[in-house]
């Protein structure tokens, strides 16, 4: 009997960042070597993380990450995985930590704050690097308001914060793709208490169409004409928790 592995993953589009992985699917045999490539166009992203999610398991397990040219792989994956790349050049994001230095006694509680001015960054990662060690160890990360801790740190560390929008804010979500003959871009909303996707509206060529109840809260822009990469935006006007707390989806298709 021959065992065959099927590997597949998602290509992500999130708030203007088009993350491309190739090939999109692989059918391999035991013992084969496999290379998966990941690329994006953001010049100020210096960390690339690789995760594994097994069939039937919703948990994402961190394989390792690339920081500039420095590779760190989690111990269970060191023998079977290798990561390569170069995320160097210049860093365009000003990230501020406070306080800069701390002198404390054993048993003290310490709070470190992190801030930046990029409104479209919804994930914040915390790392630890011990004296004399070049490795950065992931403590955990914040995604919007949800904190995820590495198991070895969850007893001594706590991550809090809210990277989402505040009441009264205006929020822009950006959707891009390279399918030049797709002339329709649709925006959907999925509320926390409802699994149904509700159509907000769509762009067809350069014409904007809204569902009747969406006009007051949303503004859609985009021009899908021409033979170039497509992009459009969904603006949420005057953010309110009751109306706008949801997951938003962008879809694209041919014009009928």
TrEMBL record:
<dbReference type="InterPro" id="IPR013783">
    <property type="entry name" value="Ig-like_fold"/>
</dbReference>
<dbReference type="InterPro" id="IPR013106">
    <property type="entry name" value="Ig_V-set"/>
</dbReference>
<keyword id="KW-0391">Immunity</keyword>
<dbReference type="InterPro" id="IPR007110">
    <property type="entry name" value="Ig-like_dom"/>
</dbReference>
<protein>
    <recommendedName>
        <fullName>Ig-like domain-containing protein</fullName>
    </recommendedName>
</protein>
<feature type="domain" description="Ig-like">
    <location>
        <begin position="168"/>
        <end position="256"/>
    </location>
</feature>
<dbReference type="GO" id="GO:0002376">
    <property type="term" value="P:immune system process"/>
</dbReference>
<dbReference type="GO" id="GO:0005886">
    <property type="term" value="C:plasma membrane"/>
</dbReference>
<dbReference type="Pfam" id="PF07686">
    <property type="entry name" value="V-set"/>
</dbReference>
<feature type="signal peptide">
    <location>
        <begin position="1"/>
        <end position="16"/>
    </location>
</feature>
<dbReference type="InterPro" id="IPR036179">
    <property type="entry name" value="Ig-like_dom_sf"/>
</dbReference>
<keyword id="KW-0732">Signal</keyword>
<dbReference type="InterPro" id="IPR050413">
    <property type="entry name" value="TCR_beta_variable"/>
</dbReference>
<dbReference type="GO" id="GO:0007166">
    <property type="term" value="P:cell surface receptor signaling pathway"/>
</dbReference>
């Amino acid at each position: 009997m021959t065992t065959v592995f099927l590997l597949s993953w998602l290509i992500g589009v999130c708030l203007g960042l088009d993350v491309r992985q190739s090939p999109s699917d692989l059918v391999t045999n035991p013992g084969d070597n496999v290379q998966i490539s990941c690329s994006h166009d953001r010049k100020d992203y210096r960390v690339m993380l690789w995760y594994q999610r097994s069939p039937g398991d919703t948990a994402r397990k961190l394989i390792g990450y690339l920081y500039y040219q420095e590779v760190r792989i989690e111990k269970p994956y060191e023998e079977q995985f290798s990561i390569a790349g170069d995320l160097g050049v210049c860093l365009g994001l000003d990230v501020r930590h406070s306080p800069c230095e701390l002198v404390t006694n054993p048993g003290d509680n310490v709070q470190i704050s992190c801030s930046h001015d990029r409104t479209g960054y919804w994930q914040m990662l915390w790392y630890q690097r011990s004296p004399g060690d070049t490795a950065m160890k992931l403590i955990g990360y914040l995604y919007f308001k949800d904190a995820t801790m590495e198991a070895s740190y969850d007893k001594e560390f706590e991550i809090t914060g809210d990277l989402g929008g505040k009441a009264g804010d205006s929020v822009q979500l950006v959707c891009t793709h390279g399918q030049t003959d797709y002339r329709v871009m649709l925006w959907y909303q999925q509320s926390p208490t409802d699994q149904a996707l509700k159509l907000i509206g769509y762009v067809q060529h350069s014409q904007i169409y809204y569902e009747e109840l969406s006009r007051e809260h949303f503004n859609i822009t985009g021009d899908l004409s021409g033979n170039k990469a497509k992009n459009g935006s969904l603006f949420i006007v005057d953010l309110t928790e009751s109306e706008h707390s949801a997951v938003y989806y962008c879809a694209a298709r041919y014009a009928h």
